[in-house]
Amino acid sequence: MPGGLISTFVSPLLPPLLLLFLSSTLRSLSVKMVTPQSLFTLFGVYGDVQRVKILYNKKDSALIQLSDGNQAQLAMSHLNGQKVFGKVMRVTLSKHQTVALPREGLDDQLLTKDFSGSPLHRFKKPGSKNFQNIFPPSATLHLSNIRDGIGEDDLRLLFSNSGGSVKAFKFFQDRKMALIQMSSVEEAIQTLMDLHNYDMGGNHHLKVSFSKSTI
């Protein structure tokens, strides 16, 4: 198929995989920036990622295994066509059924990671509010679990230092949550990957998700 994409039926009885292909002429620019952890964070907005494998001989492609078919379809529908690190993401179902972990000592060991026991899964708890807050990528991000004493200037600086340009900011009344608007959807995607679960001290880790609201 054009662009190196594949479309293959995956049994609903097994956790399906997604194939991610980063399409751009700027090939060498973003490959170094993409890691299993960053893909876990981004695709984890739409499902509980179990394993991620960046292909050793094709580092602009990755296999991402989610918990079930619904999560895989959700991630594919929201992330296919979005831009990250200057590249367009092409996401489709993979012909593979599972991501195999590499044997110890192989060169691709750092390119494959098992996240099945991660405490950062958003949808592991039945009835979690995260199920009600699944939105497409947007320039506006929702921040929660903000530590007491952290002000607007602190958060603006944090997100600016991540390489983005903050256009607007708004605290919720309790100041434990806020909205922050980046200059583009691509910037918001990149800052979410960088700053979700950021350690703010005092046992507070910043939670970042896409918002349907605007400021």
UniProtKB/TrEMBL annotation:
Domain RRM: 18-96, 139-213
Statement: the UniProt record of this protein carries the keyword RNA-binding: yes
Signal peptide: 1-28
InterPro entries: Nucleotide-bd_a/b_plait_sf (IPR012677), RBD_domain_sf (IPR035979), RRM_dom (IPR000504)
UniProt keyword terms in alphabetical order: RNA-binding, Signal
GO MF, any single term: RNA binding
SMART domains: RRM
Protein name, entry field: Polypyrimidine tract binding protein 2b
